[in-house]
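Translate structure to sequence.
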C-alpha cells in the first residue's frame, strides 16, 4: 500500500550479504564450520531506517566484520541505493556448539581469517604440482563436482594422464581444497587444460580463474605456443572472458555437450 519495501525484508538482504561474505572468505560454510567444530547463531539483529527502498530499485549491500569478542562477533551492514544509505544494520552472532548451542570461544583460525580479510589479505593460494603431490586434494574436488554433482561415472573420470599431467589446486586459509584443473602435453608446443572443477557453493568467486591462470602460465613457461581445452557448453562464457576462442563444432563427451576452445600464448 505504501509502495515501499516491507521493513522486515532488509534483514533478509543483510543475511544474504553475510552468505556472500563467507564466499569472500573462500569458505564453504557448512564444511568449514564442521572442520572448526562449531557454528554461528544470531543473538541479536538491529536495523536503523533512514529511507525506503522502492519496487525495482537496484540495491547494494555492504558488510563487514566490525568486532570479534571471546565467543561472539559483530557484523555491520549497509543497504544502499546508489550513494544513498537507506538502512544500516548490526548482526550479533555467537559461536557455539551445534549440538548443545552453548557458546564456545571463536577458534583462532577463524579469528585470524576474519581479521585478515578485513585487512585486505588474500584468502586463497594456488599450488601447482604433480599428481603424486596433489592427488588427494585434486581428487576430492573432482569427485564432488564430476562424479557426485554431474553424475559422471567414476571409471570415466580417472585416467592414466593424471600421472603425467601438471595439476593446480586452490586452497583457502583453512587448507581446504576448493578448485582444481590439470595441464597435459597435447602435441608439440600445444598444451591441453582439462578437469577444471570448483566447489559449487563458491562458484563465481574467481577460483576457476585462478586455476586457469596458473595452468596457462605453466604452459607458457614450458614453451607452449597455444593451449586448448574442451569446455562444457555451459562454461564457454567463463573461458571466453580469459581470452579463449571457440573452434569447430560442439561435440558430446561423457554425455555432456562440449566445444573446443583455444588461446594463443
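Result:
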Amino acid at each position: 500500500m505504501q509502495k515501499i519495501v516491507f521493513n522486515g525484508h532488509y534483514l533478509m538482504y543483510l543475511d544474504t550479504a553475510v552468505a556472500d561474505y563467507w564466499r569472500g572468505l573462500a569458505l564453504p560454510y557448512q564444511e568449514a564450520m564442521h572442520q572448526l567444530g562449531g557454528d554461528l547463531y544470531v543473538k541479536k539483529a538491529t536495523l536503523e531506517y533512514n529511507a525506503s527502498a522502492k519496487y525495482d530499485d537496484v540495491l547494494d549491500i555492504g558488510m563487514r566484520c566490525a568486532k570479534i569478542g571471546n565467543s561472539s562477533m559483530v557484523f555491520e551492514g549497509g543497504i544502499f541505493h546508489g550513494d544513498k544509505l537507506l538502512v544500516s544494520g548490526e548482526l550479533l552472532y555467537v559461536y557455539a556448539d551445534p549440538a548443545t548451542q552453548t557458546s564456545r570461544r571463536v577458534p583462532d583460525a577463524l579469528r585470524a581469517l576474519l581479521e585478515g580479510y578485513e585487512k585486505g589479505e588474500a584468502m586463497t593460494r594456488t599450488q601447482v604440482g604433480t599428481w603424486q603431490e596433489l592427488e588427494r586434494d585434486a581428487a576430492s574436488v573432482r569427485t564432488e563436482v564430476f562424479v557426485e554433482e554431474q553424475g559422471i561415472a567414476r571409471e570415466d573420470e580417472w585416467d592414466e594422464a593424471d600421472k603425467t599431467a601438471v595439476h593446480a589446486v586452490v586452497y583457502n586459509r583453512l587448507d581446504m581444497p576448493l578448485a582444481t584443473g590439470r595441464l597435459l602435453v597435447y602435441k608439440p608446443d600445444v598444451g591441453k587444460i582439462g578437469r577444471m572443477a570448483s566447489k559449487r557453493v563458491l562458484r563465481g568467486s574467481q577460483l576457476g580463474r585462478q586455476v586457469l591462470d596458473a595452468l596457462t602460465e605453466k604452459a607458457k613457461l614450458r614453451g607452449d605456443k597455444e593451449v586448448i581445452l574442451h569446455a562444457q557448453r555451459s562454461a564457454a562464457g567463463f573461458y571466453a572472458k580469459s581470452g579463449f576462442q571457440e573452434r569447430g563444432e560442439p561435440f558430446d563427451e561423457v554425455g555432456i555437450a562440449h566445444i573446443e576452445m583455444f588461446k594463443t600464448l
